[in-house]
Design brief:
Number of helices: 4
Strand content: 15-25%
CATH class of the largest domain: Alpha Beta
EC number: 5.2.1.8
Distance between the termini: 152 Å
Organism: Rhizophora mucronata (Asiatic mangrove)
Helix content: 25-40%
Catalytic activity: [protein]-peptidylproline (omega=180) = [protein]-peptidylproline (omega=0)
Structural class: alpha+beta
GO molecular function: peptidyl-prolyl cis-trans isomerase activity
Enzyme class: isomerase
Radius of gyration: 47 Å
């Protein structure tokens, strides 16, 4: 073999040696990239599977679609809080309106407005003759002891002691058509005396009264 041929063969071997490591390195780099990207989410969370990713996306989508979750852009509470507040407001208003129709006196007398008559109806004042319909019950057990419903209205002169004190005070100021509930303590009712075998001594009484006429 000639020296020139030896030199050429050696040059070819050297060239092969240079090419082979480069190809192996390229293959190794490709394998390494494939290995590193397995199990990696596009959001950069390593080790998260595709099923976990789908669940997360569904959860985020649900939060966006649900108007009752999270906060508004200005950081205020969402519609859940507003709805709760709107639900509470009528209760407070109703309670305040109800209390405005109830008067409680120091001696225990309670006057509750049940219904309003005509705004221009004649008003009962001391000295007037008034006609009423009523139902009387014991507060203790709700037992009915007297009523004139379905009968002729009861007539008396207001404010002169013809009836118990609870009535003189409770009917005063009513307009024709008004209905009131009077809760009357013993001191403004029949006191410590029993009445007709139906009202025990020291009884609290409840009367529902409707003013029929004033003259």
């Amino acid at each position: 073999m000639k020296t020139d041929e030896i030199d050429n063969d050696q040059a070819n071997e050297i060239a092969k040696d240079k090419i082979q490591p480069e190809e192996v390195t390229k293959q190794d780099f490709s394998d390494q990239n494939n290995h590193d990207t397995r199990g990696m989410d596009v959001d950069g969370v390593p080790g998260e599977s595709s099923s976990d990713k789908k669940r997360k996306k569904k959860k985020n989508k649900k939060k966006i679609q649900d108007p009752g979750v999270g906060e508004n852009k200005d950081g205020t509470a969402t519609s859940v809080g507003n709805e709760t507040q709107s639900l509470l407001e009528p209760v407070e208003k109703e309670s305040a309106a109800k209390s405005s129709h109830i008067r409680t006196f120091a001696n225990g007398l309670v006057i509750e407005e049940l219904a309003m008559g005509k705004p221009d109806g004649k008003r009962a004042s001391p000295g007037n003759r008034v006609s009423v319909r009523y139902i009387g019950k014991l507060q203790k057990n709700g037992k009915l002891f007297d009523s004139n419903v379905g009968r002729k209205p009861f007539e008396f002169r207001l404010g002169v002691g013809q009836v118990i004190k609870g009535w003189d005070v409770g009917v005063n100021g009513m307009r024709v058509g008004d209905k009131r509930r009077l809760i009357i303590p013993p001191s403004m009712g029949y006191g410590d005396k029993p009445v007709g075998g139906k009202i025990p001594p020291n009884s609290w009484l409840v009367f529902d009264v409707e003013l029929v006429n004033v003259r």
